[in-house]
Amino acid sequence: MELVFLVLSALLSCIMIWKGIAIIQTYRMYINLYNSEKVMSIGRFHPIWGHLHLIPEFSDYVRLVKTGIQETGKKISGVWLMFFFPILTTCHPDTAKVLLRSSEPKPKRFGEAYYTITPWLGDGLVLSNGRKWERNRRLLTPAFHFDVLKPYVDLYNDVFDTFLNIMEKATAGGQSVEVQEPYILAALDTMLRSAFSYDSRIQEQSNKQHPYVEGVRRLTYLTTYRTLRPWLYPDFLFKLSAAGKEYFSHTKYIHEFDEKVIRDRRTSLESKPLASDKHRLDFLDILLTARDEQGVGLTDREVRDEVDTFLFEGHDTTASSLSWAIYSLSKNLKEQQKVYEEVTKVLGDRTQVEWSDIKELSRLALFLKESMRMYSPVPSVGRITTEEIDLDGLKVPANMQIYVLIHALNNREDIWGDPETFRPDRFIDEPEKDPYSYVPFSAGSRNCIGQHFALDEQKVALAKLVQRFKVLPDPNHEPELVFELVMRSNNGIRIKLEKR
């Protein structure tokens, strides 16, 4: 018996030594990787905290990388979350394209950034990988065909008419008005009424913040909060924390909200089938009725995951983009005038934007493009390597988290020359620019499936805005950029409106 015990003890000791050597070797590999001349350091490395003492919020990391780029011109940055979670960030077209062209999966395992979003968004298109992602992307693509998108334009007009009426009342005395919060409600209203045929009329219900909007706002903050606090990665510890209790409370509400939308649609489909002339085909219809080659549709959980994902991505990122575009109108009056003149030429006396008008608004499209370059709605996207890859001569091993910092990429001085200057014509004057230098909707096979939906909505909204009002800046207010899952202003975006 003692001999058996001794043999087992020896085996266990050997395994522990082997594991320990493997951990040390991996750690040394990461240290060598981080110390490469190809990688830009963001500051002094702490033996325990890594770089967490430098980045209490994700916004701090974005600013450190942007500053480092200006000083060094490097294409890759590195950060350690405590001493055992090394992460690389690409911030140049040469390195970003390697990642975005690949089929590498999203990092959502324990200790990886997307891990903190999974309880909320589940395994929808943003987070799913491999065959599941390929299947669901294929099933959902018909939901964004122009035949489906075209009828949405009437709803865009209606929603934004309501928004503009609210803005007109708020600025009747010549005072400035905050536009970020009201447009989040408008964007949610658009999503529910168009993609889900759910007539909530959220903008008209009250002046108070809708609990869904507040839930999304807090969840986008709490996910980055948790990502930068590795001691909260274990679920049982996170659930015991105040942040975790708040996170799961909001998640519960949002899931219940989305499940009600789905239940109502199932009931509607029973009374008004898709073949009925009275039923307008939308995103949720396609989600509920899509079938793969084997005739298998999405499960109830898969449907909810896609609704969770699309409702969040479709309203919050669009609201961010349009809010910053309105701010850009107020700060660039000459460019606003060019947009106004084009809108006047295309629409004439009409106040309703039609489907055929959207493609004619080329100046507006350039304006929106430049606004999204300067104020990237989604600051970053990530991947996890499944094999060794080469990033500009840097050999990156498998199982490495790598992120494309879109905001830094879209604002590199060595790429854009004068990135702080708002100049829509740069997209005409420099057509030879690397396409991966501007990726507001990501790029490659995993680009945003709903980008045309978002752009159409924003073009209708901006066209109606400049036709009705001259947008002016509030000289007493400057927005404070905050980088979370979505870029927003910490103190709102205030403008003045002058009736034309």
Automatic annotation (TrEMBL):
Annotated positions binding heme: C448
Keyword vocabulary terms for this entry: Heme, Iron, Metal-binding, Monooxygenase, Oxidoreductase
Molecular function terms from GO: heme binding; iron ion binding; monooxygenase activity; oxidoreductase activity, acting on paired donors, with incorporation or reduction of molecular oxygen
Annotated family: Belongs to the cytochrome P450 family.
Cross-referenced InterPro entries: Cyt_P450, Cyt_P450_CS, Cyt_P450_E_grp-I, Cyt_P450_sf, Cytochrome_P450_Monoox
Short name of any one Pfam family annotated for the protein: p450
Organism domain of life: Eukaryota
Cofactor: heme
UniProt keyword Repeat, yes or no: no
Annotated protein name in UniProt: Leukotriene-B(4) omega-hydroxylase 1
